[in-house]
Write a structure and sequence with these properties.
The chain has a single domain (2-96), classed as Alpha-Beta Plaits (2-Layer Sandwich). The longest helix has 10 residues, at 15-24. The protein is of the alpha+beta class. The protein has four helices and four strands, in the order E-H-H-E-E-H-H-E.
C-alpha cells in the first residue's frame, strides 16, 4: 500500500472554512478513484497558521497515477484552494506503508 502525503497551510482564522471545503471537494474526490483505500486529514496550529497534512492511501502507484496523472508527485489542487492556502506547494511525497496495527 502507498501513502501519499500533501501539505498545505492556511491562516488560522480560515482553517475551519478550509476544512469544510476539503470535506466538500478533495476528500470525496479521493474516494471516487479506483484503488483509493482511504484518506485522513491532520491539522496543527503554529502561530497564526494552521498546517494540514492530507494522507491518502492507495493500493499501488498505478492507482496513484489514476488520481494524480503524471508526474505522480505533482500536487493536485481544486479551484478555490488559492482562496485559503498560503502557498500552493508543487509536490507531494509517497511512502510505502511498511506496517499497520
Amino acid at each position: 500500500m502507498i501513502a501519499r502525503l500533501w501539505h498545505g497551510a492556511t491562516r488560522s482564522d480560515r482553517a475551519e472554512a478550509y476544512l469544510r471545503y476539503l470535506h466538500e471537494t478533495g476528500l470525496p474526490g479521493y474516494r471516487t478513484v479506483p484503488g483509493n483505500k482511504g484518506v485522513q486529514v491532520l491539522m496543527r496550529e503554529e502561530g497564526t497558521a494552521t498546517h494540514f497534512l492530507v494522507v491518502s492511501y492507495w493500493e499501488s502507484m498505478e492507482a496513484v497515477a489514476r488520481f494524480a496523472g503524471e508526474p505522480v508527485d505533482r500536487a493536485q489542487y481544486y479551484p478555490r484552494d488559492r482562496e485559503f492556502l498560503l502557498e500552493l506547494e508543487p509536490q507531494v511525497v509517497h511512502y510505502q506503508v511498511a506496517a499497520t496495527q
